[in-house]
Amino acid sequence: MKNIALVVGATGITGSALSQQLIDKGWTTYGLARNPSEDITGLQPVVANLLDLDSLKLALQNIAPTHIYITTWMRQDSELENIRVNSLMIRNLLDVLSPKKSVQHVALVTGLKHYLGPFEAYAKEGFLPETPFREEQPRLDIDNFYYAQEDEVYAAAARDGFTWSIHRPHTVIGKAVGNLMNLGTTLAIYASICKATGKPFQWPGSEAQWNGLSDVTDAEVLAAHLIWASTTEQAFNEAFNVVNGDFFRWKWLWKKIGDSFGLEVKGYNGTMHPLEQQMQQDSEVWKKIATENGLKEMDLNQLASPWHTDLDLGRPIEVNTDMSKSRKLGFLVFKNTEDSFYELFAKLRLDRLIP
């Protein structure tokens, strides 16, 4: 049977990289989004609202995917609302496709909040999880929409007989516009503003993150991991961590990034300097930078997500991930993290998104 992929969230960092790799491998690839992009040649757009059953039924009436890749979520004001909305999205999608009996595998992308807890709970619930994170670590006794999403996949798999995989990346580094969680591009925008205004490239986060070991996940690595797990029998019905495979300390990488933009670099100085505060008055500054340099996007909020970058860089513990499970089963893709950032910056310049 020909592989037919449905990428849910095809305009995001992960979804766009995955869609390109699937198309390059000869898969028929549909990209579901509320506002599909036309930037990827060969991607067949599907316009639908995952919270609207009628919208989904209409959009998917002539599509019978063999593989579903869920790479999106909707941020809500509370974790209980995150649970309600994000589990409903998955339930609606799998319920609509269930009568077709075409689905062979569902891959769900979540993340390290599986081990850390939701955004507002970082280190506030009286625990500091042990690192490096391993897949066998039990769920936390706390509300978490990732758990609800997993449970929807498990229930539908038991009903319809498809296999599944869960993918838990660390911070994903890749190119996308309008993404809620975009650390790499946020740092590029911040560095560009520092360059234009003469401000130092000030570390925004915690001492623990500055000094501790960390890792990230390149979008291309995550895409390869999704395809591997969804087509490799020994990887079926398993949850996996997925990161680049190297470790770094931010006090080293921060200087590398700052130097690459020609900036004065300032590290941790005893206090945190959140980017959300540093950049809250920069909308007009960015418009001026964009106008002077002929950039494509003048809206700072479409490129930068300081709130999410602050959460990542402000954690009170070092955060890193064990990849042994995937390695033992044969996934050997590796990416140097310094290259991940430099390649992203090059793409952003090529696409006229930063100077």
From TrEMBL:
<dbReference type="InterPro" id="IPR036291">
    <property type="entry name" value="NAD(P)-bd_dom_sf"/>
</dbReference>
<dbReference type="Pfam" id="PF22917">
    <property type="entry name" value="PRISE"/>
</dbReference>
<protein>
    <submittedName>
        <fullName>Nucleoside-diphosphate-sugar epimerase</fullName>
    </submittedName>
</protein>
<dbReference type="InterPro" id="IPR055222">
    <property type="entry name" value="PRISE-like_Rossmann-fold"/>
</dbReference>
<feature type="domain" description="PRISE-like Rossmann-fold">
    <location>
        <begin position="67"/>
        <end position="355"/>
    </location>
</feature>
